[in-house]
Amino acid sequence: MSKIYNVGIIGGGISGVVTALELANHGIDSVVFEQESSVVNGPPFCHLHAGGNLYPEISDEQCKILMKQSIEMARLFPQSIDERPTFISIPKSEQQDIKNILERLDMLVTYYEALIEKDPENEILGTPKDYYKVYNYEDLTALSNKPTIEHPNTPDEWMTNAIRFIDYKKLKTPVVLVQEYGWNLFRLAAQAQLALTKSDKCNLKTNTSVTKIRDVRNQKLDHNWEIHTQDVVYKVKYLVNSSGFNTGKFDESLRLNSKRHIEFKAAYVSKWQAIPGLIPELIFHGERGTPHGMAQLTPYCDNYYQIHGMTKDITLFENGLVQSKNNGAQPEFSDDIKEKLNRGWNDNEIKDRTKKAIDFVAKFVPAFESATLGGPPLYGAQQISGDDPSLRVGEVSFPSKSYARSEIIKASSALTVANQIIHKIQEESIIPPIKTKPEQNQLLNSISKKEIDVFAGELAIQRGYPEALSRLLIEKK
After folding, report:
1. What is the spatial distance between Cα 12 and Cα 38, in angstroms, rounded to a whole number?
2. Neighbours of 139 (CB within 10 A)
3. Among 73, 82, 415, 445, which residue's Cβ finds the most Cβ atoms within 10 Å?
4. Is residue 174 reached through a cis peptide bond, with omega within 30 degrees of 0 on the bond before it?
5. Domains of the chain and any CATH numbers
6. How far apart are CA 44 and CA 60, in angstroms?
7. To the nearest 10°, the Cα dihedral for 339, 345, 350, 356?
8. Could you tell me the CA-to-CA distances from 447 to 124, 197, 351, 450 in Å, in that order?
């Protein structure tokens, strides 16, 4: 193939597509290789993490980074953001102190104020004073006696709808309602793929596996890498390894050694009875990996709910977290996990884990025991760079010239990585210096809500999920 691309991107996950979109927005051409038939296939995400309140164990600095990056991504993909709050609580069975959460929330309010002062467009989570609201036992009792609001607009209305279902006698008080929003994978995938397909600056190659990468950097050619697929060789000047939990495989092929963990996780789709009024996402904190691990109930349209239970019987798996060896960069899952990653789930295991997930939530939401299986699990594996498996903020590394390794852990880091890569490409003179940065991604903005609605629904169905999972609870204009 005679064409030479400025950038070749291996992997059409969220990091790969956001990098390609930002390159296109700057007029830089790329070719993206995705082995599936559509982009952004996993691991699944459902929560914006605008403050990291689902992770009591991480540092304040990671929480601030997650907030900043989440706001940036929400501004980039507004049609994928479900603007409903999140209920945060600690069961009485847990040692964790609610005071620690409140101190962190105050820190995040101050940081959010600083982000807005820097750029008023960052005010996407409501006003800083409304970022969170605290409810004591008496507040909850009073709200539980108020009528349901079909479409809640205030924190009290959201809490009124939720608290009638929650056994709050099992929870430490106060509890918190915080403006951490939902994030719809199918809608982001739809907008990204439609935009990349429309762009004349990106050659998106779906259903395409990379079989080999040839390093020609020392041959004084007008390109640095040759990317081999089954029947075509693509020439590129700069290589981006954005292949998610398989990142280490390409490192090994390039004789690069790097430390990382990879982790397999799953969430379960359930169908509950129709309830009056929308409810927030519900979080019941607990120690990860123990029988009391965090329970997370995420509402979707048409009475579908996604469940995480951070125990080895539900979301986490025996041998689901593995580390690279000293003699290699790619950790290896067990055969059982590999089979699941290749859509080899056993039907009985799906039913069993979904039932356990439902029962886990029902400890705090008793009426939820009537929920049933609503579809196949949402699952996937993520990489965690370095030695610390509790790390939740990852970005990008540049282990050698003309090569970038995306190491995101949370989807919110994707835009940060794209900008770092673009800076590095300029630094290495692959492209001329960019004098002005566009304020918005015009390519993404050119995709209409109707186009996103239609294609997101198609993607959900193609992947075997209910179409309702592609829609937002809070309809956007």
Report:
1. 8
2. 17
3. 73
4. yes
5. 4-43+186-257+388-470 (3.50.50.60), 60-183+260-385 (3.30.9.10)
6. 25
7. 0
8. 21, 11, 38, 8
Query: pLDDT 10s digit of each residue in the chain, 477 long?
Result: 579 999 999 999 999 999 999 999 999 999 999 999 999 997 889 999 999 899 988 999 999 999 999 999 999 999 999 999 999 999 999 999 999 999 999 999 999 999 999 999 999 999 999 999 999 999 999 999 999 999 999 999 999 999 999 999 999 999 999 999 999 999 999 999 999 999 999 999 999 999 999 999 999 999 999 999 999 999 999 999 999 999 998 888 888 888 899 999 999 999 999 999 999 999 999 999 999 999 999 999 999 999 999 999 999 999 999 999 877 889 999 999 999 998 889 999 999 999 999 999 999 999 999 999 999 999 999 999 888 888 778 789 999 999 999 999 999 999 999 999 999 999 999 999 988 777 788 999 999 999 999 999 999 999 999 999 999 999 876
Tokens 């469940």 belong to residue: 307
Is there a contact between 49 and 179 (Cβ–Cβ < 8 Å)? no
- What's this model's pTM, rounded to 2 decimal places? 0.96
Matching residue, tokens 């600056």: 201
* Burial (0-12, 13-18, 19+ Cβ within 10 Å), 79: buried
Token output for 61 = 């600095």
Q: Residues with Cβ < 8 Å from 329, sequence gap 6 or more?
A: 247, 248, 249, 251, 252, 256, 257, 258, 259, 260
Token pair listed for 430: 């692959």
Q: Is 156 helix (H, G, I), strand (E, B) or coil?
A: helix
The size of the chain, in residues, is: 477
